[in-house]
Amino acid sequence: MKVSIVIPCYNEKGTIEKIVEAVRDAPLESREIIVVDDCSQDGTQAVLKESLSQLVDRIIYHPSNR
Question: Going by C-beta distance under 8 Å and a sequence separation of 6 or more, which residues neighbour residue 36?
Fold first, then answer.
């Protein structure tokens, strides 16, 4: 069974990498990691695109804060 882990984020530039690392280190054999950015304005989107896009399965960018 695959476990889907959804990580919502909004203005998490300083913490999103640590959060993703902690989830990746969890002892799960079959998982997918999905990050949902809620239109961050602090540079979180740049971190997701530049550093984390290869480490997670999917990133969803909301065009406006919901």
Answer: 6, 7, 8, 9, 59, 60, 62
